[in-house]
What we know:
heterotrimer; B: 103 residues; mainly alpha
Amino acid sequence: MTLALILLSVLILGSAAVAIALRNLIHSALLFVGCWAGIAAFYLWAGAEFVAFAQVLIYVGAVSMVVLFAVLLTRQGNELEPVKDDSFNRFIRALIAGGSVAGVLLGAILGTPMDVNTASPAPTMTVRELGARLMGPHAAALLIVGVLLTVALLGAVVLAAVDRSDQPEDAP
Amino acid sequence: MSQLQLCLVLSSFLFCIGLIGAMARSNTILVLLGVELMLNAANINFIAFWRYGPDHAAGTGILFVLFSIAIAASEAAVGLALVIAVYRHQKNIRLQEANRLKG
Amino acid sequence: MSASTDSFLERAPIEARDWLVQLLPAPLQWFTHHLITIGAILAVFGLFFAFTTVAERKLLGRLQNRLGPNRSGLPKFSALPWHLKHKLFGLTQPFADAVKALTKEDIVPAAADKLLHFLAPVLVVAFSLLTFAVLPFGRNMVPVDLDAGLLYFFAAGSATELTIFMAGWASRNKYSLLAAMRALAQVISYELPLLLSVVPVVLVAGTLSTNEIVTAQGGWSFGILPHWNIFTPWGFIGFLLFLVAALAECNRSPFDLPEAESELIAGHLTEYSGFKYALFFMAEYFGLTALSGLGVTLFLGGWQAPCDFLPFIPSYVWFMGKLVMMIVFFIWVRGTLLRLRIDQLTRLAWQFIVPLALINLGNAAFWALTASWAGPLQLVRLGVSLALVVGPFILLGRRLNIGRGPRTYRYATS
């Protein structure tokens, strides 16, 4: 079990790190998809079946498509523009910030005694129980999320839509 | 190191990779994807604590992750629509050059 | 049902597998168990794919008043003193096609992204095969009985969209990329109707597990009328919507705009040749078969026999029979209907199928809430449900055609 977790971690972290570093946007977007699929595999490993499939359906199926379309719609003429001067400085600063956050988090994790029973079998939650929870105690949150999704998608359409009134497309 | 700690280490490294990406890259899409990675790292924590926590039946971790995925999806949709709107105004999506309030 | 559970043919495949597995030492058993299942699926559906292609070509030929492929028989082995004279009705055509595809030159464009160009056909076959894992092929014959099986099916299916994009982009050909965008737009906009047409089944059955959905459709009224979902008003319209959405999802005629053979070259597959093209072709048929299998599972009662006295025929035979009927229906549609324009395609999805599917969801909720009605109230239940199907169908169908008379041509005489 631990070996599987370590392999998954290497897959997730490796693809995420390479995706951040690559200059080819399409490649890095596809690597992000691999990273999300790895996270879904982690959920499966932890016994959260429903969440894993939801993650694949939403991230690999939907978000990846939106990202790829956005990359294509905003492409420059020459794909590999020269690196700007300030990029290196910003990279160093980001590395310092990220490294220090990682250090603090690692210290906190390793310094906290966590006496959990790792030998216990993975818990399972059937879809029926999950649905009962969602429709029972969390019904209000579910409604709000539904409204939020609708509003967000409508807003996205309004933001991205082109106003074509000033340049009629089928002018003679 | 226990398995829970391994999960937490994984999620904190993922969070830092997302943070570095969001800070170091100037392409708006990659910055957005970095933020998505940080959200995913938080989700990993929720699932890990649900897996090793005391109360499995309540399923709070799973429910929280479901809501978090929904919010992340809407964030990606709105964020990328904004990226396209910015691109239409300034013909590139470098974050450093998006500094005008008037279109 | 009681007699069939014990019949030898019904249990034969499972028992053969279990006998083979228990021969091996314990640590290997779990692994072999799944390996045999995978091997069986690959063998059965690989052959099924091969004969679907030849059936499609022969049936289309008959629909168009020609013979279709009937030449390829067995090769003549000169070493043998005899050879079969008969052409076997051209049934060996798919194997000849496979040899042709394997021996063709594999051309990769010079500017292409070599890695993605290679990965796309491999991944598309892998993803389309993943969906078979949750289909119940017979009683106790579902490869992986997942609690969220239906969600898994759609998750695995949605991953194939990624490969369409990879194929179009990696070819480094603007027509490929444009065609990939068109294909994606179509597949994504028909994903919603597909899901919406499936949700009522989940609502009434109360589960996402494909196995339990089939079990919920067991039983007969009066011994001859099975309790399949298609024989309820909401199930009937749901099945029709599912068929339309599945056709569009598989890029099959009349929704084959992305690779309209007679107008475009091959859409996003323009730069693929030889075996890679064959892999895409294969994945398309696997996707069609998987979606047909899902339709059989959700609406046509899966492996359940249609009549009280028929279950002596094994369950997997029923499943495959219904599957073949669905495929033949798809081929028939391809030979009959004309291709839609892109605006007709999207208008059909958003103005007709999606509203109808949403109303159907309410209809199914009504059906589930009134499950306890008995006696004359059952007729009321049926009447209200039928009205909820027919009324919106007529109203939406009328609205779809308002202001759209026969097309006029400005620069051509008709």
